[in-house]
Amino acid sequence: MKNELESKPMPLVRNLLRSIVATTLLCCSLSSLADNTVVKKSATPKPGRISSQLLLIGDELVREQWPGTLALVNAPRARKMALPGQCISIAVVATGDERDSLLRETTFNFEVEFAGQKQIYDGLHPTGIKRLKPEGGDFVAEILGAASVDPKSLPDMSMASLATFDLGWCVPKDIRDGKAAILGSAILPKGPALPFQKINLPIVSYATAGKEGAFKNKEEFGAWFMTYYQQPNPSRVLAACRLLSNDNMAFTLNIRTFLIEVLKLSPEAASDLQTRLSGESPETRGYAMHLLQKAGYDITPLMAKLSEKERAYQEEFLRRTPPLADPYDLRVNPEHFDTPNRLDALWSIFLVTGKQKPVRAIADMLMWHEDYPALQEAQKTPKQPKPMTPALGRGVSYMVAGWSLGSFVRQQPLVADFVDAWKVDPNTPKVIKDELGNLFVNEAFKRK
Question: Which class is domain 2-203?
């Protein structure tokens, strides 16, 4: 297929693209919208239309994750619930050829009611507008990249835009379970006001979330781990401590980094965890205290409540726990080569925060492509032991970084958005742009 695409790139790719579009791609099915409305592209131009459904997203998506990305991004996932201290933003979807100008010219009013308190936000205009990729758009881009076809030469296939609003609404810290009612209206530049359908967002206290957050097995823990930044639920840290307290994976760098980052981001979760440790086993309690301590919390009050015997046990346990390496220190140490472990820890930071910084640190490891031949040479004689050298270590790290980036681009739409932006960012070194452009065709990045 690759040779055929290279010999006749544009006609074949366009036909392939039309075929895919006809079946699955040219729809922007925002899975997070309640009725799974599918917006299909029309052959004739259509005026802009604002959907009557609101989309609730994490405030951190707008403030911390999307800045620096292109105008074209993947659709975010709607929040299913919120815990104390978490902040929520509202987004509005529009379709049609004039949708962006319609969103900019429309005035929006919103209302959030919870626990008898009502907050009104009137006269708002979008703080940002993003065009949404068609479902499967990243797959198309991968095909085009493999065929050396510039996606810019093809028409814009986005059929929906998302307007975001900076409300600054956060769940109060001391609350009971309940529902926040969100509603509003759009004052269109022409025509009548458009009322939005009311959304009821479940608000869950830490007491309830903690009781319901047990993990059945490691697979369920893995699902929580891999989707955390999309649906953050820090109340499950105690359940994770129970699951891992007698497991060797508990002290791997990536698992500890993940749980520590969760606690760092949520003082409310850290406080709740401390109040629930008294009834736990010494193993679970010790592991939780280790995480709290590494996250920067004072565990002295917890220690003071223990019996003298357990306090001595826990103090010794904490002394024996492995040090926590800095994931951002990616220097190759031939005597203790753990750069791939630090790379895994960087992915853990991303999975908690959704931020670009740890992913960019991984992408920067692609600068080591010149050291990959050292690894290739070593692989020619696999049965002969090789001393670890800085060049060999960098070659291994380059290979692992490229493979993991490709894997995450396919699995995590936000990572795909980051990579798209870095490919055209003038501040991205050319060598990194070249490597990112070959992410899916580079033999070095294919799992052997």
Answer: mainly beta
